[in-house]
Design goal:
Nucleotidyltransferase, domain 5; ROK family protein; 37% helix; 2 domains; five-stranded mixed β-sheet; 12 strands
Amino acid sequence: MHMDLVAALDIGGTKIAGALVDGHGRILLRAQRPTPAREDGDTVMRAVEEVLGELTSSGLWGRATAVGIGSAGPVDASAGTVSPVNVPGWRGYPLVDRVRAATGGLPVVLVGDGVAMTAAEHWQGAARGHDNALCMVVSTGVGGGLVLGGRLHAGPTGNAGHIGHISVDLDGDACPCGARGCVERMASGPNIARRAIEGGWLPGADGDTSAAAVANAARAGDPVALASFERAAQALAAGIAATATLVEIDIAVIGGGVGKAGDVLFTPLRRALRDYATLSFVRRLTVAPALMGTDAGLVGAAAAALDLEPSAAARLTAPAAGR
């Protein structure tokens, strides 16, 4: 008996990864190319087609029922287009149509990378068993996604749950998105580092000014580094509590590079959450680190296809008699 598979694409500014994923979330085949992010849109698409070519030439391809795509955003699932900030050659690029053509007309599901990570954590990771969850990627930016009523809630364009651009400081710094005081402006890795440097933190002899270096300094007790992580934690807590109050999530999962800071982030985050999540129905909200690691994008793209493309899920779970 051969179980059907889902093809997955994880598209970012540095790499384009592809995989064939089975119904248990296991990756059976991988392919990858660097993203030619500075090239024109068709050159970027050729890299995608090379990844898909490795998948379609495999003997496993005949079992693929759908393609899931998790892409850096903005994405527009309703139009089937992507406009990743870090891939300037793609603006309103018709990725869904191009991928469908390259895969023989399979159903294609497109979501933002934060939604893909959420799908992965709900299927196989820290949000497994939770019917209502917010999952976040806290890295160069801050993205996220929602699970509501046990189902992935991607929204009409595939961007629902984009917590990074909730405003938590009405008079805060201007954000590149056009708003003020966004969670991302305080809690992303580059902004944690920026705030520490502005506060007088000095890097070590290696000159490393990353958020990871600030986290190391915070662990060693540097007060400015600690204060920058406290501020980031406060912003995250305010955004998480607002989301929980709005849609009644019971867990928030945090992944991405900043999430790897450990207690330097999670201790002040849990403390701040007690100050913001005060209503009776959000007090039991828990916060947990993500578990899926670097495969979250691929596993999540597959999970999104299963969750949002009913025919793929039906075929994946149906008995395979006669195959």
